[in-house]
Amino acid sequence: MRYVWASATHQGMLREQNEDSVFPTSSGESDSSVLAIVADGMGGHVAGEVASRIALNAAASSELGAADRVAAGNRAIREEVAREPNLEGMGTTMTLLEIEDDVATIGHIGDSRAYLLRDGGFSQITEDHTVAAEYVAQGQLSPEEAATHPQRHMLLRTLGLTRFVNVDEIKLDLSPGDRLLLCSDGLTEMVPDARIAKSLASGTPDEVVWKLVELANGAGGVDNITVVVVDAID
C-alpha cells in the first residue's frame, strides 16, 4: 500500500504559545514506512514546549520500536532536567504511529489520542491515561460523565516526571481505505467524536487536518491543537 499524510498544529484562540509538537511537520507520502508523532507538553510557559520538543526529537531519531521510541523521549527529558534542574516538573504526552509492512504500531502515553476511520466506522484506538478514564474503566463513571468530569485532564501517566514509564503499545493490520488520526486533546476537548468522524469522512489529508483545527478554534480553541492524518491507499 501507499501512505499519504498531512499534519497541522495551532496555538488555539486563548493560549499565548503552542506547547504541542508534531512530526512530520510537512505533508508527504511513502510506499513503505511511516512515522508520525503528536506530543502535548505540560509544565507551564516555556517548559511544556521544551518537554514536547525534546521528547519528540528523541523519539523521532530513535531506531527502536514504537513503545521504546516513546520511552526514549522520557529519558531525553530526564537528562535535560538533570542538566537544568529548574525544568523539573515539565512533561508531555506522546502518541506515536509507526507503519511497516502494512502494520500500524502505536506507542502511547497520556491523553493525546489515535483514532481509526474504517469502512465508515470510527473508533478510538488508544486509551486516555487520566483519572476520569480510570473511573470509567472501573465502572464508576459513564463515558458521557467522564467527558465533563473535573479530573478529565488529570494525567496518571506522562513522559518526563519519573525515570521509568509504562507505555501502551497497540498493533493494527491496515487495509486500503483506512484513515488514521493522531491528535492532542486540544481537538477532542472542543470537538465531539461524531463531528470529528464526519470531518474525516471526506477530503484529502491536507484539507482534513486544517478543517479539524478550524473546528476546534471555532468551538473556542481553549488549548493548543495538533492533528496528523494518514491515509492507506491501495
Structure description:
There is one protein chain. The chain has a single domain, classed as 4-Layer Sandwich (Phosphatase 2c, domain 1). The mean pLDDT is 95. The chain is an alpha+beta fold. It starts with a strand and ends with a strand. Strand 6 and strand 7 form a beta hairpin.
Shape: globular
The main sheet orders its strands as 3-1-12-11-8-9
For the record, give the distance between the C-alpha atoms at the N and C termini, rounded to a whole number: 5 Å
Largest sheet: 6 strands, antiparallel
CATH first level: Alpha Beta
What do we call the CATH homologous superfamily?
A: PPM-type phosphatase domain
CATH fold label: Phosphatase 2c, domain 1
Number of domains: 1
Count of individual beta strands: 12
Helix vs. strand class: alpha+beta
Poorly predicted segments = none
Which architecture name does CATH use?
4-Layer Sandwich
The amount of helix comes to 25-40%
Q: Helix-strand pattern, N to C?
A: EEEEHHEEEEEHHEEHHHE
- Rg over C-alpha atoms, rounded to the nearest angstrom: 17 Å
The whole-number mean of residue pLDDT values reads 95
Percentage of residues in strands: 25-35%
Discrete helix count: 7
